[in-house]
């Protein structure tokens, strides 16, 4: 990709394509979140548990996201790692009302962070502490404590509480993600410029 | 929650999802179940809580880590199961709680139906006696005497009322009689265990019958909707634990552990047990793994049996068993047995192999493995101190096929390549099977003959003192002889040993008997000095063969005791043929 394309990207002439992995346990709300991020005419009404994975696209002001909406069911979780290489960013969704499986979410997150395709890359990770509308839901602070997010030192990460049904908290998260991705592109192209 | 190295091995398999040491639960495995009570794909934990053991009994429902619902039970629960009783949508299971002679059925967590066990036959004599008491024909003391008579002789046991009456003090009898005489006598049994049996379809969401074991040695199968008795099976003893498999309309199998320490296997076709497993100690846990039955016994052992009652294996446990449960994970094709132990551990056995050990802060008294919440591999444990713990099996957990407990090397269980049975072998086996008695007799006869011949030879040898060992207890001796040389001169060495523990032997002489025409001996007779116990004394003498015809003979050695005519020992020395030429 040439410098012109990049410039065009910054100027909003052509949007940069970014691959995002959407991970998290089954029933955490991944598909619901992705669905809410799509333009309202492309949204579906009934959301069913994902089998395998789906590929969805949505755009923000400066980026065009291609999202791998993975199934979170136990038997499909071993598919995740095959897509780690392609992922330029990760959205990790947690059902903050499912206290029982918080350990399982942590376990899957730890496995992800220790995977060779992820471990040494500065992939930005956005956490959604989803279902904050549910009465017994844990706060995003509590979720981040239970998942030991403070231990992630070598990757940019951010957590926001969200209610995917009403779309609350989603823009904040996506803004952050866009910022990190653009940032990394700028860093990369700076180094390209200095080479010239 | 990681302490010690053993914990680490286990933390690679189990995640600690929840632990509440003060959940205030008093329950056992038989009163714990997991069911999708709301039809939302999220299983709830249903517990029959025994309260204090006499009051405050509760039906508790947990969702995730929180207690969601609590309702009062009227009596102590003895068992709790969830089951689908009809085909109505949504397919939400009902809960059946057995307590006393009743089954309380809850639907949507609301009381729905109460089933009462049929009352038992009443002793006619007992009824007569109470009739007389009611009409005032007999006084309380006479009533007591008559009832005692019935109790000691009748086949049909007395009702609870009469038994209570017999335990009363004289001054309380009058009042008891006037209080109860108007009511009819009832004899009621109680439920000891409860299970479920699919009615006609083997599907996961098929309608199930309730199966109940009673103190009156019976097993009842109830219709899921009408709660009528579909079938009654009888046992030789009161059932205490039960496992049910199959379908009522097709084929089923009920494995029951009974209070007499035996396990009975009931089948559809007969109302009496089909197989019986006799155990050497009382069963304290009974679960089924696939087609096999695993029984935990009071003697700290685990046994595996086939569905026909044949013993497959035994495993020794480090502590008494508190409870048992099956661990069935169909998605991974994994089946094993969980055994709660009094040493605060839960062992996981796959056949006889210990594949995992879970440490608990308290003694585990209730175990249940299954889908909880949205997690298929959840293990619910309740503890003696009232705690509740939930562990989740890791997605990546792998169980070693090998036994974690020290034991014989795996080579020991490698099957040998036994060759095929030949026709000869089969014929021989058949012959042995048909003529077993005759063959046994012939063998015994020959054996007796051999023994007789041996005894006779021994007696002869003793009489002739032919043995190289002295049988005389006063002079226990051992003798052996060695001949050296090629001839015609031989050296004869006698090794004599006193085998007594401490006593020396005195006054012995040795004499040789030989053919004077063949041999000549320098000292055909000599005295033996005192023999100290244990030492071997070599005595040498020279023998010369005087014949040159190349023949040999026997030289007899006698060990003699002064003053006795019979020798103590006799030895025969087979002399070798003289090969050398005598120097002229
Ligand atoms: N109350 C509440 N419910 C939500 C929220 N987000 C999702 N749900 C519900 O949670 C359920 C599961 O949502 P999905 O989006 O299918 O979950 P998923 O993570 O894609 O699940 P899998 O595809 O099985 O991995 C649906 O019934 C959603 O309506 C939320 O923020 N609040
Ligand atoms: Mg989905």
From TrEMBL, chain A:
It is found in: Cell projection, Cilium membrane; Cytoplasm, Cytoskeleton, Cilium axoneme; Cytoplasm, Cytoskeleton, Cilium basal body. GO terms for molecular function: GTP binding; GTPase activity; metal ion binding. The keyword Transferase does not apply. InterPro entries: Arl6 (IPR041839), P-loop_NTPase (IPR027417), Small_GTP-bd (IPR005225), Small_GTPase_ARF (IPR024156), Small_GTPase_ARF/SAR (IPR006689). It comes from the Eukaryota. Coiled coil: none annotated. PROSITE patterns: ARF. GTP binds at residues 24-31, 72, 130-133. One of its GO terms (biological process) is cell projection organization. GO terms for cellular component: axoneme; ciliary membrane. It is a peripheral membrane protein. Keywords: Cell membrane, Cell projection, Cilium biogenesis/degradation, Cytoplasm, Cytoskeleton, GTP-binding, Lipoprotein, Magnesium, Membrane, Metal-binding, Myristate, Nucleotide-binding. Belongs to the small GTPase superfamily. Arf family. NCBIfam families: small_GTP. This is ADP-ribosylation factor-like protein 6. It comes from Gadus morhua (Atlantic cod). The gene is ARL6.
TrEMBL record, chain B:
Its main location: membrane. Residues 477-579 form the Bardet-Biedl syndrome 1 protein GAE domain. Keywords: Acetylation, Cell membrane, Cell projection, Cilium, Cilium biogenesis/degradation, Cytoplasm, Cytoskeleton, Membrane, Olfaction, Protein transport, Sensory transduction, Transport, Vision. It is found in: Cell projection, Cilium membrane; Cytoplasm, Cytoskeleton, Microtubule organizing center, Centrosome, Centriolar satellite. One of its GO terms (biological process) is sensory perception of smell. Residues 14-267 form the Bardet-Biedl syndrome 1 N-terminal domain. Part of BBSome complex, that contains BBS1, BBS2, BBS4, BBS5, BBS7, BBS8/TTC8, BBS9 and BBIP10. Interacts with the C-terminus of RAB3IP. Interacts with CCDC28B and ALDOB. Interacts with PKD1. This is BBSome complex member BBS1. It comes from Gadus morhua. The lineage of its organism: Eukaryota, Metazoa, Chordata, Craniata, Vertebrata.
């Amino acid at each position: 990709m040439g410098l012109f394309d990049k410039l065009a990207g910054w100027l909003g002439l052509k949007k940069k394509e970014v691959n995002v992995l959407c991970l998290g346990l089954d029933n955490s709300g991944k598909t619901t979140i992705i669905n809410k991020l799509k333009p309202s005419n492309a949204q579906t009404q009934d959301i069913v548990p994902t089998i395998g994975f789906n590929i969805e696209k949505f755009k923000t002001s400066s980026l065009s996201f291609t999202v791998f909406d993975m199934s979170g069911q136990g038997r499909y979780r071993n598919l995740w790692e095959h897509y780690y290489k392609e992922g330029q960013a990760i959205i990790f969704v947690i059902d903050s009302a499912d206290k029982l499986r918080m350990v399982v979410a942590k376990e899957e997150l730890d496995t992800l962070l220790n995977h060779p395709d992820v471990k040494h890359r500065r992939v930005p990770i956005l956490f959604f502490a989803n279902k904050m509308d549910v009465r017994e839901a844990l706060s995003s602070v509590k979720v981040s404590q239970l998942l030991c997010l403070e231990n992630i030192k070598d990757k940019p990460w951010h957590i926001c509480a969200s209610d995917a049904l009403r779309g609350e908290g989603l823009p904040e998260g996506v803004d952050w993600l866009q910022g990190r991705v653009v940032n990394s592109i700028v860093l990369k192209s700076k180094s390209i410029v200095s080479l010239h | 929650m990681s302490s010690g190295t053993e914990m680490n091995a286990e933390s690679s398999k189990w995640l600690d999802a929840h632990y509440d040491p003060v959940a205030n639960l008093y329950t056992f495995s038989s009163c714990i179940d997991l069911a999708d009570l709301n039809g939302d794909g999220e299983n709830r934990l249903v517990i029959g809580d025994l309260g204090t053991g006499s009051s405050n009994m509760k039906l508790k429902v947990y969702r995730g880590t929180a207690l969601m619902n609590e309702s009062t039970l009227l009596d102590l629960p003895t068992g709790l199961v969830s089951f689908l009783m009809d085909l109505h949508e949504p397919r939400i299971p009902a809960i059946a709680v057995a307590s006393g002679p009743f089954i309380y059925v809850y639907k949507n967590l609301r009381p729905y139906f109460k089933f009462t066990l049929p009352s038992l036959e009443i002793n006619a004599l007992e009824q007569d006696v109470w009739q007389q008491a009611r009409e005032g024909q007999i006084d309380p003391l006479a009533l007591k005497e008559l009832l005692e008579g019935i109790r000691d002789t009748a086949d049909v046991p007395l009702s609870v009322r009469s038994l209570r009456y017999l335990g009363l003090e004289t001054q309380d009898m009058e009042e008891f009689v006037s209080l109860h005489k108007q009511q009819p006598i009832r004899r009621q049994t109680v439920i000891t265990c409860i299970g479920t049996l699919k009615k006609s379809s083997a599907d996961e969401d098929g309608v199930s019958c309730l199966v109940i074991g009673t103190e009156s040695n019976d097993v009842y199968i109830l219709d899921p909707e009408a709660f009528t008795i579909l079938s009654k099976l009888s046992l030789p003893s009161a059932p205490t634990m039960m496992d049910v498999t199959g379908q009522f309309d097709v084929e089923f199998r009920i494995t029951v552990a009974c209070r007499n320490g035996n396990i009975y296997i009931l089948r559809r076709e007969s109302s009496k047990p089909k197989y019986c497993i006799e155990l050497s100690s009382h069963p304290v846990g009974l679960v089924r793994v696939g087609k096999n039955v695993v029984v935990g016994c009071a003697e700290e052992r685990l046994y595996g049996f086939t569905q026909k009652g044949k013993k497959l294996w035994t495993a020794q446990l480090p502590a008494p068993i508190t409870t048992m449960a099956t661990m069935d994970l169909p998605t991974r094709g994994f089946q094993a047995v969980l055994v709660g132990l009094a040493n605060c551990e839960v062992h996981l056995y796959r056949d006889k192999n210990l594949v995992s050990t879970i440490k608990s802060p308290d003694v585990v008294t209730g175990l249940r493995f299954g889908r909880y919440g949205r997690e298929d591999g959840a293990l619910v444990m309740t503890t003696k101190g009232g705690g509740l713990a939930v562990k989740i099996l890791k997605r990546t957990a792998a169980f070693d096929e090998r036994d974690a407990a020290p034991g014989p090397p795996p080579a020991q269980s490698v099957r040998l390549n036994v060759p095929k049975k030949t026709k000869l072998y089969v014929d021989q086996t058949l012959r042995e099977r048909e003529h077993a008695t005759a063959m046994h007799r012939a063998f015994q006869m020959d054996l007796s003959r051999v023994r007789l011949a041996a005894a006779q030879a021994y007696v002869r040898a003793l009489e002739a003192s032919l043995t190289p060992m002295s049988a005389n207890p006063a002079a226990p001796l051992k003798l052996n002889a060695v001949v050296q040389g090629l001839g015609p001169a031989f050296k004869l060495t006698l090794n004599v040993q006193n085998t007594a523990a401490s006593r020396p032997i005195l006054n012995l002489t040795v004499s040789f008997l030989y053919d004077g025409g063949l041999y000549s001996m320098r000292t055909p007779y000599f005295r033996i000095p005192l023999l100290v116990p244990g030492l071997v004394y070599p005595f040498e003498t020279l023998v010369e063969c005087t014949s040159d015809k190349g023949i040999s003979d026997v030289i007899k050695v006698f060990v003699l005791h002064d003053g006795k005519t019979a020798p103590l020992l006799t030895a025969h020395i087979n002399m070798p043929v003289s090969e050398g030429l005598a120097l002229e």
